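Entry under discussion copied across for reference:
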Amino acid sequence: MKIAFSEADKTRIREAVHAAEGRTSGEIVPYVVPRSDTYPVAVWRGAAIAAVLALFVAMLVAQFYVGWGLAWLYTSWGATLVALAGGVAGALLVHFVPALKRLLAGPGRLAQSVHLRAKEAFLDEEVFLTRDRTGILLFLSLFEHRIEVLGDAGINQNVSPDEWADVVLRLREGIRQGQVTEGLVEAIGMCGALLERGGVTIRPDDVNELPDSLRLRTDD
């Protein structure tokens, strides 16, 4: 799944981050990837299921067909050919139908892949290097329709993981409705309000330690 962010979209997101950070000492890093994994296991599962189904259908046809035209189905090479064709068709179907790939990958694998990719992004963007450890990563993985909110120590001691639920829900709805930019802008504002309520107050000498821009990865 790919989302095109226009320059206007990127500007709106950057301005939303700037506004949210103007109320707290938090440093919000919005990060978007098309997917967190390619899920080859889903493709293999689809191929295996389709191969078995193809063989089953071929056996039914051979059982009830009267004639000599399908005699090749009774041969070993015929059965192998049917299974191979079914497997290839199943693999292609899973590859090109995202909903089917998500189903066959399974929710556990999706969640694990997104979490690991978010932790990698947290380190890559050096969210942990702020003065008061108040960096927060707002991570969206579009294919999986999943969001991770990773806060540094200064965030986690003031805001519990459960308090991010509304932010996550808003972002997820934005993805599902094809309004990712709108969802991001609103979620970033919600982050700022939540940090402010949690006591992540701004210092008089506060400086912008991390860029406000959207981190958009298109090569995952």
Summary: Residues 42 and 105 are 5 Å apart (CA to CA). Helices lie at 7-21, 40-64, 76-96, 98-105, 107-124, 153-156, 165-176, 180-197. The radius of gyration is 24 Å. The mean pLDDT is 88.
